[in-house]
Amino acid sequence: MEAGVSILEQVRDTFGCRQPDVRSYSPLALAYMGDAVYDLIIRTVVVEQGNRAANLLHRGAVRYVNAGAQASVIEALQDVLTQEEEAVYRRGRNAKSHTAAKNASIEEYRKATGLEALIGYLYLSDRLERILELVRLGLERTGLLAAAGERNGL
């Protein structure tokens, strides 16, 4: 990996991806990307804390990658979002999805979708530093970071 070149830039260069205006993406496309990025962040932290069986790693990560936890995270971040970030979150939260969470209320699912849309938007805008800042702050404010650290090293 070239120094100073983001993974997004490398993917775009390697696969010849065009770079449309990220504001033109649908909120559910942003949420699709954001779900993967959020999951990757959590999985990275869980794996970096110790080599364990895959089922234990999965159990550790799933506590933080679910609609209820993600809804709590975005609620804890409301006062630090920029106007732009708040607008993206609202678009994602209000998007009409054809699926629903298995173990969450509709309200939690929509808030989680909004968080994922925001993360997807920031990722496609090449703003990983801001994503990491928000995820860490959200986990800290909800108490999930401390709880995770006790069990999984998050």
Spans where pLDDT lies below 50 across 5 or more residues: none
Q: What is the gyration radius calculated from CA atoms?
A: 16 Å
- pLDDT averaged residue by residue: 90
What about the largest sheet? none
The CA-CA distance between the termini, in Å, is: 26 Å
Count of DSSP-assigned helices: 8
- Number of distinct beta strands: 0
User: Tell me, what's the shape?
Assistant: globular
What percentage of residues falls in helices of 4 or more residues? 55-70%
Order of helices and strands: HHHHHHHH
Structural class computed from helices and strand pairing: mainly alpha
Strand content: under 5%
Question: In words, what does this structure look like?
Answer:
The chain has 154 residues and is mainly α. It is 68% helix and 0% strand. The protein is built from eight helices and no strands. The chain has helices at 7-15, 27-48, 54-62, 67-77, 83-94, 106-124, 128-142, 144-151. Helix 4 (67-77) crosses helix 6 (106-124) and helix 4 (67-77) packs across helix 7 (128-142). The two termini are 26 Å apart. The mean pLDDT is 90.
